[in-house]
Amino acid sequence: MRARMRIGDDQVVELAEMFRLMSDPTRLKIILACLDAPAAVGEMAERLGISASLVSHHLRLLRAARLLQADRRGRQVFYAVMDEHIRSMLSDMVDHVAEVDAEAEAAP
Asked: How far apart, in whole angstroms, are the C-alpha atoms of residue 16 and residue 40?
């Protein structure tokens, strides 16, 4: 097991803000929509059943926290989780939740 790293107060605040942003179900769905492949605003809005303007509002917050990165391709902007730490943590948490659900379904 890796030794626990000490971080400063400013970094604790930054980390808490990242978790606060991810605690909103809509923002978490947006991040998860960008986990496997880059996604455009319209695609996310359709997939999540919310307006493109609401998706854009959340994307501004997520980009500011460096949870998502934008890549302009012509007239469209695609968003993706590019940081491997974020990708790994979310993938592990998704696997954990799915594992717990599978165990509950298998229980007699």
From this structure: 27
Count CB-CB contacts under 10 A for residue 76: 12
**pLDDT digits 0-9 by tens, 62-87:** 999 999 999 999 999 999 999 999 99
Pairing of strands 39-40, 76-80: antiparallel
Start-to-end Cα distance in the chain = 35
d(CA 39, CA 8): 34
| CA atoms in the 13 A half-sphere facing the CB of 3 | 3
Report pLDDT digits (tens) over 13-24.
999 999 999 999
Both tokens assigned to 86: 């974020």
